[in-house]
Amino acid sequence: MNILEIELICGETPVGFKKEVVTGSNFVFDADPSFTPINLYNFWGNAATVNSFEECIHYVEGGFKASITTVFDYGLVLLTVLIGSYSLYKFFKENYHIKLVSKLKKLIKYSINNIAKTFNYFILPFLLIQNYFLFDYVRTKAVRIPRFIDEYATLSASVSFFNNLDFNAGDIWGGSYSALLTSGPISAIGGVIGWNLTSKLVIARISNFYWILFLQLLLSLVIAKIYKSEYKFLLFMNSFSLILIPWWQGSLYMLGEFASVVIFMNAIYIFKKYRNFAMVLFSLSIFFGKLLTLLPFVIFYILSLTYERKIKTLFNDSLFFSIPLFIWLILVGSKYENGNIFNYIESLFSLVLSHESGGFENSNVISEVSSWNIYDLIRILIIPILFIYLINKNKNKLDSFFGKISLPLAGSTISSYLWFWILSPTKWMRYSQHFTIVIIISLVYFLSFKVIDSKFDLFLLSSSLAIFIENSKYLIFIFVFFSICFLFFHTKFAKNEIIKVLLILFIFVDIAVPYFEKDTFGNMHHIIRPCQENLVSPECLESYESK
Predict the structure, then answer these.
(1) Which pTM value belongs to this model?
(2) Where are the domains of the chain?
(3) 518: Cβ–Cβ under 8 A, 6 or more apart, which residues?
């Protein structure tokens, strides 16, 4: 054997080592206190513990190794094969396989047919486990994402707003109620609570996610009550639906798109039953959330009036829509530093027309799409088309259940979609949330309220939701496989319930896996000292930007 093979087993050759000549079978090797003992074995199962480099060389050259397949290992394999072969022979000869398959089919059939009953026993334990992993998932993201200047602007302005009604992020953004502050105060209510209690940025991020989750839970509960539908599925999917949204960390950054669109899309489903309340929500989402939400609202409302042919409701709708608008304009009029309300509106329109993402001016800005992966492209380009297809195909069922909603919902979604893909030169993913949030939560509602029941449509619906799974992409393909199996090959099962359970389980696995992969939880308690003293200050901004 060469010295390299020996050193792989025995370690590095000692300096000045000279091999001794071993004579006789009773030769005794001297132990080396600096040598770590090694257990060696040969093919016949003999073992030896060597206590020196000299002794190790002797046994290695004699065929001993640190790990080797012995005659006993081969014997064990042979014995296992013989016993296993005989067991399989008896198993099939006595028809045990037929009996086993029969019992397994009965068990699966019973479990699936009684899945709703079985599910009830596990609601509370699973909710607790789900929210444990969800919190860890949100916390990890909140710790790891970098600082973003828009986050500072929204948080500082919102803290100032809720503390003294002054929507002000500092002079760099134009002072009080500046048109440059494009994310309204409802975007960061959770962030304001977290910041005021702790003065910690990560805590503010996490609490803002839970503010939006609370908002979605509350509004979905209202909708479930309106349509007299069960709420169990929504308890699980509301939190999951938020983290499915592309670039969902916008909720941690307290950007306007998230809260604004959540309110807007829920108002769509409230509109036919509680029209006045919905109009207030629409206005709130636009003027206290994100002005860009005005586009899908206008399309939705015009199509609703056309669909209903009730122009007489226009005055009443305008009255309730104007409530948040008038409150906002009153606040602007009392605090705006660059003139009066008309100057504010002028500067607002000027900003909209000149903004690099607006698409109203020629721009040399590079589109963000170039940095997307294939999954992002499918989610934001293809899934909206499938969504419109599902609405159109199930138009009568949707209109019957929700009240002439299909055309306005499809039209408002298309308007945001076309603006994003045709007009917006930057195509920032955060702006796609004006239609992706609507799509994801709408699909959850369709599934929860059982308004879509055909096998093919259920497959499209569930697969469209599954494609938004972010971390473990292979789960998407596994989900699609199981969906096909249960929807098209097991016709007697409750297909709607099966799809619900599969979605919950697969998304749960997707957020649970990162918990076991990471080796650190990150620091939630870092404090930016200048911001702790005064959030709206040049020192705070400088310190925030420095990291």
Answers:
(1) 0.78
(2) 1-92, 129-539
(3) 140
